[in-house]
Amino acid sequence: MYKNKTVCVVVPAHNEETQISNVVATMPAFIDKIIIVNDCSTDNTQQVVEKLKQQYPSVILINHETNKGVGGAIATGYKWTRDNNIDATVVMAGDGQMDPDDLIAILDPVVDEGVDYSKGNRLFTGEAYKKIPRSRYFGNAFLSFLTKIASGYWHVADSQTGYTCINKKALLLIDWDRMYTRYGQPNDLLVRLNVYDLRVRDVPVKPVYNIGEQSGIKMRKVIFTIPWLLFTMFLWRMKEKYIIRNFHPLVFFYFLGFVFAVLTLFLFLRIGIAWHYSGRIPPINALAAMFAFMSASFFTLFAMWFDMETNKELK
For domain 7-242, is the CATH number 3.30.70.2190? Predict the structure, then answer.
C-alpha cells in the first residue's frame, strides 16, 4: 500500500519477452498487484511472466486470446482493478520506457490531492528534444495540440504518453468497453474524462529511449487515424457535455466557425478559378472571402476561449 491506499500497476505487454522481467524487478515494493496483460504475444512473453509469478507473488497474468491493441490491454487491466476495488491504478509499458523513479510523482496527485487522473509529460524537461526521435517528437506535439481542442484539457501536453494513474471514481465512471483500443487510447480517454468533469494533471517525467524497446507505432499511420479519432471524439464531447448534460452556447460558436470556414474555402476557390480564367479577382468575391475568413477565425477562437474558461477548474 501507499499512504494507506491500495495501488496496482497495469502492464500491457505484446512481445516483450526481453523487457518484461526488468519492468517487474524494478517495481517499487509498495505496489500491491502487478497486472500483466499479455496481448496475444507471439514470442515467449507468457512463459517469462509465468516464471516471474513464482518469484513475485504480486504478479497476476491475464492472457488475451486475440490481439486487442494496447488500449484493449489497458482496458482489461482497468476492469480488473475496478472490480477488485483498487484505490489507484498506474499504467506502465511492458517495454521499460517508464522510469519507476517517477512513479511516486505520478501517484501523489491522485492519492493526496484529489486529482482523478495524472499523466506523465516528457516535454516538460529539456531532455525531451534530445532523447525522443525527431519524427515522434514533432508528431507528439502536433497530436497534443489537437488533443487540447478535442478534450478540453487545455493545460495538458504530451497526450501520447501512457504513464498514467487513475483513481477509483474515474474507473467506475468510464465505460471501458467503449474505449478506443489502439494507440489513440490516451487521447480517447482524456475526452471521456472531460465529459465527467474529472480533474487531470500533468506530471514531469523523464523520457526513456534506446533501452532495447521496439516501438509498434507507425507514425505514417497514426498521424491520420488519431486526428480522425480526435475529430469524432470532439463532436461527441460537444454533444454529451454542452448539449445533453449542460447546455452551453459555445456549440453555436463552433458551428458558426465551421460554417464560415467552409464558406471561406468555397470563396477562395472561386477567386482562384476567376483569376485563372480571367486574370482578375472579383472585388466583391475578395471582400466576401476575407469577411468569411475573419468570421470563421473569431467564432472559433471565442468557442475555444469559452471551452478553456469552462474547464479551467479541472487542472
Answer: no
CA distance 194 to 212: 35
Are the beta carbons of 117 and 164 closer than 8 angstroms?
A: yes
CB 165 within 8 A of CB 107: yes
Distance CA 69, CA 13 (A): 10
What kind and span of H or E run contains 260? helix 250-278
CB 300 within 8 A of CB 254: yes
Query: Using one digit for the tens of pLDDT, what is the confidence trace for 131-185?
Result: 666 667 777 788 899 999 999 999 998 888 889 999 999 999 999 999 998 888 9
Domain ranges of the chain: 7-242, 248-314
Distance CA 184, CA 217 (A): 11
Q: What is the DSSP string of 95-107?
A: TS-S-GGGHHHHH
pLDDT in tens, 192-233: 999 999 999 999 888 765 544 455 555 566 677 899 999 999
